[in-house]
Amino acid sequence: MSKVDFKIVLFQPEIPHNTGAIGRICVNLGVPLHLIKPLGFSLNEHSVKRAGLDYWPYLDLHIHENWEDFLDQEEPKRLFFSSTRGKKTVFEMLFENGDYLVFGRETSGLPEDFYTIYKENLFLLPMPGEHARSLNLATAAAVVAYEAYRQIS
After folding, report:
1. How many C-beta neighbours within 10 Å does residue 44 have?
2. Which CATH number do you get for residue 56?
C-alpha cells in the first residue's frame, strides 16, 4: 500500500456522528481531518467519540477558527469541493497528493460564494435514483476519500 497525502476538510460540520465516522475514515486511510468552525457540537460529545470508536486518539485533527484561518495556515495549492451543484462527477476528477477535499454543512452545503469562487473545482457524486437529493455526509466523504486514495496510491 502506498502512502497518500490528501486531506479531508469539513466546513462547519453540524452532526457529531458524521464527523466521528469521517475521523475514523481518515485514520484508516492515514490522512488528516481539518474542521472549520463553528462546529455544531462539542468535540467532547459522546456521539463523536462513539462514531470514531477507539480510532479517535489516532486522528491527525486540525481545527481552524474560520475559512480564512484555514487558508492562511494551510496555504492549499489545490482544493476540491463536493457539491450537488458540481458539473463533473468525482470519477472525472484527477486527484493528487497534497489535495484538500472539502465538504460543506449537512443542512446547507457550502457558503454561497464558494459556488462562484471555486466553480471549476466542484464535483458531485452521481445519484441517478428517482428520489435522490443527497447522500449522508459520512457516506459521501467515504466515497470521495476512497476514490482519491485509488487514484493516488
Report:
1. 8
2. 3.40.1280.10
Q: Which of 137, 146, 151 is nearest to 31 (CA)?
A: 146
Range of the domain at 22: 7-152
Residue 2 domain flag = no
| Least confident interval from 1-5, 71-75, 103-107, 127-131 | 1-5
Poorest-confidence range of 30-44, 65-79, 124-138?
124-138
Composition of the chain by helix, strand, coil, percent to 5? 40, 20, 40
What are φ and ψ of residue 9, in 5° steps?
-125, 125
Report yes or no: 65 and 71 within 8 Å, Cβ to Cβ.
no
pTM: 0.95
- For β-strands 61-64 and 79-82, DSSP reports them as unpaired
Domain presence at residue 1: no
Asked if 100 contacts 34 with a C-beta cutoff of 8 angstroms, the reply is: yes
In degrees, rounded to 5, the angle at the alpha carbon of residue 49 between the alpha carbons of residues 46 and 52 is: 150
